[in-house]
Design brief:
mainly alpha, single chain, 117 residues
Length: 117
């Protein structure tokens, strides 16, 4: 049942984003920023954690989950390092995900040899 909840939650999030892209004039970059900021705000309000625990990977993998991870890092950094933690906490919390995206993106570019259009 956990897989079904994760699949349906992720699918609903992706469907809503696709509707947003199709029905508005927002560019993909702005939609992605909107998702990250929304995840951060929901984390700040304490609404994202219960949702992520219920939905599993369907809520933690999309960009909403990345925004929540940034918020948690900023919160922890602020508690441990004060004002400086606001700036470094998000980077510390999301470093593994960002590094993985860069490394696998680079490896993918070596394997598939992308060409400019």
């Amino acid at each position: 049942m956990d897989y079904v909840k994760a699949f349906l939650t992720g699918g609903v999030i992706c469907s809503l984003v696709q509707i947003l892209l199709d029905k508005t004039k927002m560019m993909p970059g702005r939609v992605m920023v909107t998702l990250v900021v929304t995840g951060s705000i929901l984390g700040f309000l304490g609404l994202y954690e219960p949702f992520a625990q219920w939905a599993g990977a369907g809520a933690s993998v999309p960009l909403l989950g990345f925004g929540n991870t940034l918020w948690k890092g900023v919160k922890e950094g602020l508690e441990s390092d004060g004002l400086l933690g606001i700036f470094k906490g998000g980077f510390t919390a999301s470093a593994v995900g960002i590094s993985g995206a860069l490394i696998f993106g680079y490896l993918g570019s070596l394997i598939f040899r992308p060409k400019m259009k």
